[in-house]
Amino acid sequence: MSQQSIKNVVIVGGGTAGWLSAGVLAAKLGQQSLQKTSAINVTLVESPEVSTIGVGEGSWPSLRDTLLDIGIKESEFITQCHASYKQGSTFSRWKYDDKPHQYQHPFTTPSGYVEMDIHAQWQNLCAEESFEQSFCIQPEMCDLGKAPKQVKTPDYAYVLNYGYHFDATALAHLLTSHCVSNLGVNHIKAHISSVNSAADGNIASLTTNEGDVIEGDLFIDCSGGKALLIGEHFGVNWRSMSGVLMNNRAMAVQVPYEDSDNDISSTTIATGKPFGWTWDIGLQHRRGVGMVYNDQFASSDQVQSTLLAHVGERASQATIDQCTIRSLSFDPGYREQFWVKNCLSLGMSSGFIEPLEASAIAMIELGLRMLYEQFPKDMFHMERLSKRYNDRFTYRWERVIDFLKLHYILSERSDPYWLAQRDPMSIPDSLKEMMEMWKYQPPSRFDFIQNEEIFPSASYQYVLYGMGYHTQVNHLLSTTPEAKKAMAIRKQLEQQRPQFMAGLPTNRQLLEQLVAMHSK
Ligand SMILES: Cc1cc2nc3c(=O)[nH]c(=O)nc-3n(C[C@H](O)[C@H](O)[C@H](O)COP(=O)(O)OP(=O)(O)OC[C@H]3O[C@@H](n4cnc5c(N)ncnc54)[C@H](O)[C@@H]3O)c2cc1C
Q: Where does the pLDDT of residue 189 fall: very low under 50, low under 70, confident under 90, or very high at 90 and above?
């Protein structure tokens, strides 16, 4: 088997991870792109008995590239997945329990970020303003509910960088029909009952409940929490991170809008509560609302009433009465290895920490990019590639954990849940070391030195300074020429402001225009 080329890829699972994998691999390496002799065949098998997780409705800007790669028109995605534009996250009440506090982590880095120490300029020129607004126009546009583009802006292009809020089940349907009809993906609806090994320990084939055998060269485990191949078959351990990031439960609810002109928020709104936090996202026809928490700090009744009270801030009792609450549980963590023999795991089977900052789909996209760009030629190549992949992705999961933890440790909330989340014993050494460094200098490219870091240093700055962290100002980097450049940037942003205000429609206005145009 070792010199045999990798022709047949079998994906187990038809959730977001499975269908994104099928779409990307078939579009990049299938017969549409490559000559028949080198093209791969993609088969996706999903169980009619096990439903998809059905949550995971916030994406990063990277989803635009992924959908473009797969060959889906943006208008098609927006209309069929009831999607809206997401320009970042708003964090409310993460700092205090007794007074309001809010900051944003927008998808746009501050203007001038690569040329100068923006932290020093912010402190010198405008420390009374919030950090995120001092060199970036996006937070103000989000506060006004503005869209990131105009109706005439081409598909996937932008005025302000954006990702999406979307209906996860609708995305799986759209990808299914596109992958099968346009990309030649072989779709099998069957429950896998056994995994069959070859003599060398690779997976040779899968057997379905009906007794059919599905053979392949590379198997991608997208079976969600079941982790059928990587967990059950190969027995790769789950590295639990519950001692670092404590959330292990979620309740989710879909809330229809009461008026057809309800605002559609341009950010995911994450609100701190006594024993967790709520997410609130706006799609075209409904909100997706949920609460993430640790079950040691609250009973499900307490969580349910906190969640419904949150929903009720913008919905009537009649609407609340129609809502069905879904409960989910998870152990935050990731696999000790993601790629073993001829099996790569992506999605929930490979890792999940919590919904904060919505990085799970982005990790799937990064995994797929590495897979298709370095697609293994044969089993020897695969062995080397899998080692490299495991190293890269262990590093990436560690950075996800550091970054998510950062959101909690600067809180001054006094509830036991928040005290536990910032217990010094629970903070990874890597983050502790960086926090020491960031007393003297802001997060920078010297802290994050890998290609395609999952979170850039600007993201750390948005969270640190949004939460009121103090870094000494670097006077060496706040010289007169630097200050002149910084003032020029601020002046330019101020001049552009009226154009943004007048030129950008609201999220709802743009979505309504697009949907009307494409349903003619
Ligand atoms: C509360 C919560 C909120 C989240 N929010 C976000 C977010 O905002 N942004 C984000 O990026 N991510 C988010 N995530 C993560 C995101 O939902 C997942 O990463 C994403 O949906 C991928 O899931 P999946 O495809 O791996 O698994 P699933 O959707 O669970 O799919 C598993 C598939 O495997 C199939 N399967 C299982 N067993 C078998 C079998 N024996 N035979 C054949 N098929 C089988 C099932 O039929 C199904 O098709 C969230 C997760 C949770 C829990």
A: very high
